């Protein structure tokens, strides 16, 4: 990359107390067979050696920039902060406990350049590349097969599109990406692809393991999406989806409480989700 010019891809790595993993995460970026990138590491107030490790590696490569937040922002506010530092045409998130495969960027950039009007590229379990118009993507997700569920690492995004739709929401905890994916698909055609770009680690410290929180936030983001987003549905279909969301929340919450033998969490979940008896009746008789 010519350091006087902007890189094509901004790799965004948010971090919080990841001293065990961040060296391998950054090293995987250095091993990419595609050179036209910048790596932006944004630490969210770590109390371990995360920042020291990142800065030591950054000293050896000017494509790496390390920022440290003055106060802890939380996961998705920090993802938006990282995007605000980006200068590339595309955004690729890489969590600081994961690794990127050597040929990831060469594959996805080649694909993205073939679809200059598309804002979002998403991993898929399908074995082919497919262009899906926005309206068709939303309908397929809700009424055929859900596929708009990949987290930030499973998406490749044009930065101008990301900024235009306001980045990630910040009020749905670990489900912010789900609302974002629906909002993105309402505002751009998308391309799904079969490439495995990121190696995802599994460990106890991940937010994705917060099952109880997910039950609440999955209900909240879907409730709001059905009210706020320009979904291409008739009022009848939208109302049907609302009732389905009520029912799914009830089923998942009762299963959780029965499994953990903690029925006391029912009331807390209802309060956090702003759930009410009207929703209860609509969900039961859905």
How much β-strand is present in the residues? Answer: 5-15%
Number of strands: 10
Spatially, the strands of the biggest sheet line up as 3-2-1-4-8-6-9-7
Please tell me the overall pLDDT.
Answer: 94
Number of domains: 2
Largest sheet: 8 strands, mixed
Which word captures the global form?
A: globular
Our measurement of the CA-to-CA distance between the termini, rounded to an integer number of angstroms, reads 56 Å
CATH class term of the largest domain:
Alpha Beta
Q: What is the CATH architecture descriptor of the largest domain?
A: Alpha-Beta Complex
Q: How large is the radius of gyration?
A: 20 Å
What share of the residues lie within helices? Answer: 40-55%
Q: What string, H for helix and E for strand, traces the elements in order? A: EHEHEHEEHEEHEHHEEHHHH
Structural class: alpha/beta
In CATH terms, the superfamily of the largest domain is Spore Coat Polysaccharide Biosynthesis Protein SpsA, Chain A
Low-confidence stretches: none
Helix count, per DSSP?
A: 11
CATH fold naming of the largest domain: Spore Coat Polysaccharide Biosynthesis Protein SpsA, Chain A
Question: Could you write a compact summary of the structure shown?
Answer:
The chain has 286 residues and is an alpha/beta fold.
Descriptive tags:
11 helices; alpha/beta; 8-stranded mixed β-sheet; Spore Coat Polysaccharide Biosynthesis Protein SpsA, Chain A; 286 residues; two-stranded antiparallel sheet; 15% strand
């Amino acid at each position: 990359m010519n350091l006087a010019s902007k890189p094509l891809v901004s790799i965004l790595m948010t971090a919080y107390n990841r001293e065990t993993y961040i060296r391998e995460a950054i090293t995987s970026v250095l091993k990419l067979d595609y050179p036209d990138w910048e790596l932006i590491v944004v630490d969210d107030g770590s109390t371990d050696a995360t920042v020291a490790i990142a800065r030591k590696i950054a000293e050896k490569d000017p494509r790496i920039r390390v920022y440290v937040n003055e106060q802890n922002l939380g996961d998705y506010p920090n993802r938006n902060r990282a995007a605000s530092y980006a200068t590339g045409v595309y955004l690729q998130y890489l969590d600081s406990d994961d690794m990127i495969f050597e040929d990831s960027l060469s594959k996805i950039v080649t694909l993205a350049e073939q679809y200059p009007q598309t804002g979002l590229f998403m991993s898929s379990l399908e074995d082919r590349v497919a262009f899906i118009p926005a309206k068709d993507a939303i309908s397929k997700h809700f009424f055929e097969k859900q596929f708009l569920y990949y987290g930030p690492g499973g998406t490749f995004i044009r930065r101008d599109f990301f900024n235009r739709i306001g980045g990630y929401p910040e009020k749905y905890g670990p489900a912010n990406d789900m609302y974002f994916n629906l909002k993105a698909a309402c505002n751009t055609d998308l391309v799904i692809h079969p490439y495995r770009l990121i190696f995802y680690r599994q460990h106890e410290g991940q937010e994705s393991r917060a099952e109880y929180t997910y039950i609440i936030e999955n209900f909240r983001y879907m409730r709001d999406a059905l009210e706020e987003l320009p979904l291409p549905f008739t009022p009848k279909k939208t109302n049907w989806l609302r009732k389905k969301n009520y029912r799914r929340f009830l089923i998942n919450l009762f299963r959780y409480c029965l499994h953990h033998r903690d029925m006391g969490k029912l009331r807390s979940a209802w309060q956090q989700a702003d759930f009410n008896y009207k929703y209860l009746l609509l969900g039961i008789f859905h």
